[in-house]
Amino acid sequence: GDRMWHFAVSVFLVELYGNSLLLTAVYGLVVAGSVLLLGALIGDWVDKNSRLKVAQTSLVVQNSSVILCGVILMIIFLFKTQLLTLYHGWLLTLCYILVITIANIANLASTATAITIQRDWIVVVAGEDRSKLADMNATIRRIDQLTNILAPMAVGQIMTFGSPMIGCGFISGWNLMSMCVEYLLLWKVYQKTPTLARKSAKVEASELKQLNVKKESDMKPAEGVQLIIEKDVTGFEPQQEKEVGCAARIAEPFITFRDGWVAYYNQPVFLAGMGLAFLYMTVLGFDCITTGYAYTQGLSGSVLSLLMGASAVTGIMGTVAFTWLRRKCGLIRTGLISGVAQFACLILCAISVFMPGSPMDLTVSPFADISARLFENEPLPTIASPEPEMIFATGMPNLSNGSIAPANSDPEMSPESVPLISVSLLFAGVIAARVGLWSFDLTVTQLLQENVIESERGIINGVQNSMNYLLDLLHFIMVILAPNPEAFGLLVLISVSFVAMGHIMYFRFAQKSLGKQLFVCHTPDPKAAPDSSPPGNTSTV
Question: So where does this one cross the membrane (predicted)?
């Protein structure tokens, strides 16, 4: 249901705004900005509450928001013409704002669900068996890859043979049923795993209260004096506590935001997390940017769909490679090998920039297209929709009519006459690199699971999500600044450079963790180290 909604909301917004990607772009920016700013706060909320409460609340909020959004969208599709005439169209604009706001709430709740289930529950369920943890991580990622394919296909078929309104109704009904099923499954897992009921964050909370008591005692009279005048000041203490509590509540989100980022920086796996975040600064993925570029190079929609299927298969192969490499070489070395494999495959993408058929032209300013449109008061290119999970079916009509239309405007440059060597190498590199990409992603995920203490899992993973969204935002801004096809080759080279920097950061982390043993491959112990060992050393064996 979550994957259906992530895909469908972009399609619905495109349909609502007259086949324009403007609303989709606004939605993507709002989502990315919200997770960037609130990621640490969401993670802190996950840490401070019981696991069952967090999982159930985030699940209910997420699915209820999707259902409500679906109902509002159905009403808009039914009465759009009437809404346009009311209050000079402001009521329809208000509906757009309401849909984007509720959809953003659903995404934030989905982020909380992912943190608590994939980064906390799974660690507790696996116990001390790190091999079991690796297998569970890989299984979850395979399911995620399959749903990324099947969910858009299901929604696309319903909207093609039905209507957007029917699609809204189907997604709302599906989320209602799935919410009940997921709620029951969470309850069963919680009942079968008693350790989920115990959380070390409660101990830390009591310690924080003791610290607060000490701070307050410094500001109050001596203990003997306080006991004497206790009866006289009892009536005034609640008011004083309320004033202090109000100020603390106002400052608490900002303090949590600061403390979350500081704690993330101080983690032993900081460089590994940054390395993963840098992989988001790339155009080498199956979003509307890369697929739209391929469309101008002569690839048909059917070919692109096959390429997307192939990328999903190689992604699943990456999860298999992760489990095998981890058993043979250890967790940290698995990330190093995966990074080398990904970068080696992306070299093909860099080579494709200079091969026949590449439209790259360094004599053309990357900002020529956007400056011309600004001076001519034309709409900006819609190539840079910030919704990574939109497939080509929704973005390509706009892309082919936007800034990259001149690539095929020349009759002599029809899709059949464009050499396919460049685009073939590009997609060969992108598809092959998915094996290393997903293996590396799983490696960093498990490093965060094993090395972050239990009471900080939520806030650290929340900040990690914020870092990922920040780099993803930068990559879309990069495309907005240089949307013309002649600059796409430059974007490819920049993307490969950022991937290289990410893996250099991970290599530095691996070198600091293993030292001279970095290149000594051996079979790790499947069990975790005893609880008495420091958390920073749990995955160095």
Answer: 20-46, 58-79, 85-109, 269-295, 301-324, 336-355, 418-437, 458-481, 487-507
